[in-house]
């Protein structure tokens, strides 16, 4: 078979899966350092930048972010299909890292250009640049996520890949939480300070993504002449019950994750202490998540991904409910509970990304089609819509409860901010757990499935079964 992966021949999933070199795991995982310099930065600070730096109303700012995230979600499945159908000497997914990384950096910086705009013109500029950024982000990120399903068909190896990704993601989030506001102040504060922070982060992200392209390989794939149609991929998604359960859990959990993360900044600034409390609280939470990630990866090997997700829900929901009930201000109690919540959140971000590649083989067994691009696209669509809805809701609700930027809030507004930051994510995390409770795929079952697919492909002469993709 032709070499189309920059050094490693692509082959169908086989019965024996070689151990992936640690260097490839690290190189792939480091890609999330780059993506989270963009994604986590926006998740943590973009709403705050729009309201407390640019002066947009919370509703307008929230709706801008929601619209851009929903747009990104809509484009994700289409990009998944496009990437799955891509054929090049670098593979299906890696070329997007090489050619997309510089464009993504430019689109990110554009959001922070200090052009002196105001009013409706400023809002329109923010919307246009954010949609541009989210579009380019989709083009680069969806192939990156799908790449893990091509690097190995072994479930535990995929847990290592997901663990590497999430460890880099959380460490990046930790860095962002600790450094962003101080860096913005050092660079002059306000719009100019955020612009130079964006330039710095974009430069680092570009170098990391180019290195990720250089050191990863696509070792599993379809025959080079396989061009699955959109209809075939849609059927593969629609009939994959295991994937649909994961989709439901991601939808509910991500809405809560977005609402809690956005509202927490306002809780820490206006109720718990000051703007300095934001940096300390986020740093503590993300540090705890980072320190727990390797333990969650090891525990996944012992009790499975489903049990780890449910354990994380129990931990984070309990911590959030205690924060609401005790209403702590800046100090050891608040930071301790934020650390506990961070440990629970680490289990969530690890398991839903490590579960996703496993659902590829379920669909392949059912339909004969390896549709990792489409599955990644539809999951990303669900996640982005959920994050957008969560952010939009927070913006609207902040206005409804009487929030006013950079002034002392009323007692009623503070009480509602506490609820948005704690009870909302706790209840929605529990709702996601209902879906995961019924998730049937474990490591042993997945390994049997991979072997069965390997045997079936071997009986067909080694040709990937997923070439049977034409519509009827």
What percentage of amino acids are in beta strands? under 5%
CATH topology-level name: Growth Hormone, Chain: A
Kindly state the mean pLDDT as a whole number? 84
The shape is: globular
Task: Give a written overview of the molecule.
By secondary structure, this protein is mainly α. The protein has 14 helices and no strands. α8 runs parallel beside α12 and α11 runs parallel beside α14 (443-459).
Descriptive tags:
mainly alpha, single chain, 0% strand, disordered N terminus, 472 residues, disordered C terminus, Growth Hormone, Chain: A, globular, 14 helices
Question: Can you describe this structure in just a few lines?
Answer:
By secondary structure, the protein is mainly alpha-helical.
Helices and strands in order, then pairings?
Layout: H1 22-53, H2 58-85, H3 94-110, H4 119-151, H5 155-186, H6 190-215, H7 230-238, H8 241-272, H9 275-303, H10 305-326, H11 332-367, H12 372-400, H13 411-437, H14 443-459
């Amino acid at each position: 078979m032709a070499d189309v992966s920059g050094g490693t021949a692509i082959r169908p999933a086989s019965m024996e899966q070689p151990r992936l070199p640690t260097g490839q795991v690290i190189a792939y995982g480091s890609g999330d350092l780059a993506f989270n310099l963009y994604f986590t930065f926006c998740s943590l600070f973009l709403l705050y930048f729009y309201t407390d730096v640019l002066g947009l109303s919370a509703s307008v700012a929230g709706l801008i972010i929601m619209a851009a995230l929903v747009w990104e979600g809509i484009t994700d499945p289409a990009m998944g299909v496009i990437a799955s159908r891509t054929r090049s000497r670098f593979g299906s997914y890696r070329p997007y890292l090489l050619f997309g990384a510089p464009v993504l950096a430019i689109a990110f910086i554009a959001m922070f250009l200090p052009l002196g705009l105001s009013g409706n013109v400023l809002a329109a500029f923010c919307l246009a640049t954010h949609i541009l950024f989210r579009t380019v982000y989709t083009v680069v990120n969806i192939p990156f996520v799908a790449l893990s399903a091509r690097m190995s068909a072994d479930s535990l190896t995929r847990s290592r890949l997901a663990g590497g990704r999430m460890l880099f993601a959380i460490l990046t989030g930790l860095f962002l939480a600790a450094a962003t506001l101080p860096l913005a102040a050092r660079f002059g504060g306000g719009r100019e300070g955020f612009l130079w922070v964006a330039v710095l982060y974009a430069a680092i992200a570009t170098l990391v993504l180019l290195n990720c392209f250089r050191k990863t390989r696509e070792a599993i794939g379809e025959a080079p002449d396989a061009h699955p149609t959109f209809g075939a991929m849609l059927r593969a998604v629609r009939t994959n019950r295991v994937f649909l359960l994961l989709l439901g859990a991601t939808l509910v959990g991500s809405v809560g994750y977005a609402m809690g993360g956005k509202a927490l900044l306002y809780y820490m600034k206006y109720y718990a202490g000051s703007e300095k409390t934001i940096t300390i609280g986020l740093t503590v939470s993300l540090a705890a998540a980072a320190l727990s990630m390797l333990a969650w990866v090891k525990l996944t090997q012992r009790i499975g991904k489903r049990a780890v997700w449910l354990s994380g829900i129990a931990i984070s929901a309990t911590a959030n409910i205690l924060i609401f009930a005790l209403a702590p201000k800046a100090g050891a109690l608040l930071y301790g509970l934020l650390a506990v919540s961070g440990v629970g959140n680490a289990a969530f971000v690890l398991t839903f990304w490590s579960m996703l590649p496993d659902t590829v083989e379920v669909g392949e067994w059912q339909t004969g089609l390896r549709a990792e691009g489409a599955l990644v696209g539809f999951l990303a669509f669900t996640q982005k819509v959920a994050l957008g809805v969560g952010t939009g809701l927070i913006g609207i609700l902040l206005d409804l409860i009487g929030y006013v930027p950079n002034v002392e809030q009323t007692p009623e507004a503070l009480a509602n901010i506490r609820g948005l930051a704690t009870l909302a994510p706790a209840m929605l995390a529990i709702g996601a757990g209902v879906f995961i409770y019924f998730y049937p795929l474990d490591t042993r079952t997945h390994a049997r499935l991979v072997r069965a697919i390997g045997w079936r492909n071997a009986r067909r002469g080694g040709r990937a079964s997923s070439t049977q993709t034409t519509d009827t």
